[in-house]
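Hi support team,

I've been running sequence recovery on a batch of backbones for a student project. Most finish fine, but this one hangs at about 90% for roughly twenty minutes before it completes. I'm not sure whether the input is malformed or the queue is just slow. I've pasted the structure tokens below so you can try to reproduce it. Let me know if you need the job ID as well.

Thanks,
M.K.
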């Protein structure tokens, strides 16, 4: 029998993830997904790791304000690794009531002592002790009267809460901020090529998993209770390809595309393959789907998902969607465009710190170019669906408006023909919100070539 793997120190592991996020090396959800499969992390330890990483990212402004109060030159004056240690330590003493504060302080001091940062051990000890002794008051709903109040109370960058307030008003913006800091629902899409949703519910029940059906998607389930002895990737329903982890908002986009068996469909930005495989499923594995991705390593994810789900009609192309050439025009094209991802702040807490408004304009240029390229690949009578997982008008409505102005042969197809009216804007776009619909924030619009 092989020896059991030695479990890693969970806080040191969390620090490594936070450092990689801070350095722009990876996204929090990707790193945590890899960690969930790491045998050196005990199954009982992973929930704590996930909470440490997500919580430290979510509560960053509150944490940094608490630390700055005890650092004459401010947190930013310290080396980045020391900042990470202090943030993680402060999160624990401020927000983890089930762990004695002194234990959290001692563990972080020990990590500092064992690292190349031993010269900061005394500072780490002193600052974290002071933070533990001077608790930060919890946000009070009645005090949130401005975007600045929301930023401070819910640890969102001010520019983001200003967008929320402009679009939603102060009261609903506060509800959205709160939703972003709550655990996001865990949603899977049934792979109807292999099993029905009702049968999948029964399969999950046999594994000790409680589920409920989603309100808007006819194929998705919310996993409301998981057995503590298993990790997500170990569930038989997932490993056997009976379902795929996919947010309900994402699963609605392919319904709007409405692909039919026997058609030729192009997914212009396909990785990791959730929408690609959904398209193939809606086509009943009949026809042809071309999955295009500019990042070659990400194409492997698409192929892995296809193999696991039993999808046989997907071909892949390593190409920039803006310069793709086709021998035959496509019947339907999905442009699930790269975006600022502001609709998934609740799922990826790092988004709020890694994005900034200066990025919106370059993204909008790329998005418009991809949509224009798709138009050149589509047959007469064909449909394009443009989608994002963000909330900004610059990346959504304005992209469609400019496209229709410059492509007179295209018309908007109201999303109400395919999706629940509750999700549709007055202009006929799909718009989802975490605080309203219990899913990620997103946008989609369908256009068709008519002449």
């Amino acid at each position: 029998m092989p020896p059991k793997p030695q479990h890693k120190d969970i806080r040191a592991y969390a620090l490594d993830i936070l450092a990689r996020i801070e350095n722009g090396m990876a996204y929090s959800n990707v790193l945590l997904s890899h960690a969930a499969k790491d045998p050196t992390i005990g199954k009982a330890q992973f929930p704590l790791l996930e909470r440490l990483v997500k919580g430290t990212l979510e509560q960053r402004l509150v944490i940094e304000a608490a630390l700055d109060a005890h650092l004459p030159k401010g947190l930013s004056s310290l080396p980045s690794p020391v900042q990470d240690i202090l943030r993680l330590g402060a999160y624990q003493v401020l927000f983890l009531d089930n762990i004695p504060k002194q234990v959290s302080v001692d563990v972080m001091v020990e990590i500092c002592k064992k690292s190349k940062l031993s010269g900061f051990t005394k500072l780490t000890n002193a600052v974290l002790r002071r933070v533990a002794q001077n608790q930060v008051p919890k946000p009070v709903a009645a005090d949130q009267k401005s975007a600045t109040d929301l930023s401070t109370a819910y640890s969102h960058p001010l520019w983001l809460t200003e967008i929320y307030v402009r679009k939603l008003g102060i009261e609903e913006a506060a509800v959205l901020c709160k939703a972003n800091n709550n655990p996001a629902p865990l949603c899977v899409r049934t792979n109807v090529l292999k099993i029905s949703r009702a049968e999948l519910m029964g399969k999950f029940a046999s594994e000790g998993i409680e589920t409920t059906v989603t309100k808007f998607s006819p194929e998705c389930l919310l996993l409301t209770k998981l057995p503590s002895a298993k990790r997500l990737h170990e569930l038989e329903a997932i490993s056997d390809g009976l379902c795929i982890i996919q947010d309900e908002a994402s699963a609605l986009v392919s319904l709007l595309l409405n692909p039919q068996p026997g058609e030729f469909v192009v997914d212009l930005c396909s990785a990791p393959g959730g929408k690609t495989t959904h398209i193939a499923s809606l086509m009943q594995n009949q026809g042809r789907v071309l999955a295009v991705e500019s990042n070659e390593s990400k194409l492997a994810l698409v192929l892995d998902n296809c193999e696991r789900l039993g999808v046989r009609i997907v071909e892949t192309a390593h190409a920039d969607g803006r310069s793709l050439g086709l021998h035959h025009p496509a019947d339907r094209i999905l442009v699930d465009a790269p975006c600022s991802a502001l609709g998934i702040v609740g799922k990826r807490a790092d988004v709020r710190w890694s994005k900034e408004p200066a990025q919106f304009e370059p993204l909008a240029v790329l998005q418009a170019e991809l949509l224009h390229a798709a138009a050149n690949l589509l047959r007469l009578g064909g449909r394009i669906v443009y989608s994002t997982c963000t909330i900004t008008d610059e990346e959504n409505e304005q992209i469609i408006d400019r496209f229709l102005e410059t492509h007179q042969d295209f018309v908007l197809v109201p999303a109400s023909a395919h999706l629940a009216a509750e999700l549709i804007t007055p202009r006929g776009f799909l718009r989802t919100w975490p605080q309203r619909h219990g899913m990620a924030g997103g946008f989609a619009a369908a256009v068709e070539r008519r002449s």
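--
Follow-up from support: It reproduced on our side and the slowdown came from queue contention, not your input. The chain is about 45% helix and 15% strand. No action needed from you.
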